[in-house]
Amino acid sequence: MNKKSGRQPEQAENQKIAVIEEIADDIYSIKFILQSIGYNVESFSSQDAYQAAVVEFAPQLVIIDMMISDGQAFQVLKEIGKSKLKKVPILAITAEAMEGEEQDVYQAGGQDVLAKPYEVSELRKKIKKLMK
Length: 132
Known about the structure:
This protein is α/β, with parallel strands linked by helices. It contains five helices and five strands.
């Protein structure tokens, strides 16, 4: 038990999460949340050749915003599935308007979907489930 907070610490130490996102405020928010829990977090933009950097980072989880530029998120999901990260779970974050497209996320290789706006507790629960 954590003496300062009285809560059980989460098992985040040494666990890496890659976040694929382009909006600076969203990157800052999710990195702050995940790093405060104790995860090692790196963010990657879909611009340029970031995919090799994601593979090199070797995360235990990938979080991807499905609204990255030019509708490339589904392509990114498929490419991750063909890379050395093919067994790494993927959490797709979607805008509410995309909720009906959850099945497409699963078919493209995502393991779970989180709709915006989301509660931090819901994000934590999904991460914990995916990183078992």
